[in-house]
Amino acid sequence: MSMMLAGKVALITGGGTGIGEAAAVALAAAGVSVAITGRRQERLDGVVAAISAAGGVAVAIRSDASVEGEAFDAVEQTLRAFGKLDIVVNSAGVNEGGGIQSLDLEGWRKVIDINLWGTIYTCKAAVPHLQAAGGGDIINISSTAGRRAAGVFASYATSKHGVNGFTESIRQELGGDNIRVSVVEPGATETEIASSVTDPQWAAMMQQHVSKQGAMQAADIAEAIIFILSLPRRANVSQILIRPTIDTAPM
To answer: Is a pLDDT exceeding 60 seen at residue 138?
Structure first.
């Protein structure tokens, strides 16, 4: 079924690690040409090298999705590299610990700028090109934190609730242009998200959560992305909530 994707072009933010990396690898294996963005050039280059070694096609674009100009430029670089754009996966994300009293405003801004504004910027830049091509797909990576508040990670929950609302809004807006819009909400998934948390105690709590018994792997989420993209155009999977089978300590 995934071979139906061969020949398409995808832009994946946060493609140097975690879910973004897994999505890039899975899409490339399905015949998609992928452009991956992120802030760490060495991580991006490593993913591109692995995809190329496996026979896939990928380019690395160093870009901070939370910076409007860089997000727009990443879309333009993708078009210059491949000539078109069919799929956008917004996977760039960070976390911080604390709430309204214990996390400073700089921390709140960092999380919301990357998780929410980065998603908005990339979609804003990409949509005209998807429309010009006659349609496409946007998949935004959210979290179970986008459904329920997590007081100990309040900025993250706020940003992901925003991603959920934004995704549903543009889904309704863009369906008539043959643009499918989906949100994927993973539970505990083993990634490097804890490394973005500056306070060591909060970071340790997050690391325990994503590495607990039964935690999902990033490749599991990539499989959900492939499923969404492989369905007939008439079917828009607007929302996937995916949790570990063994959920011993949900957050």
So the answer is: yes
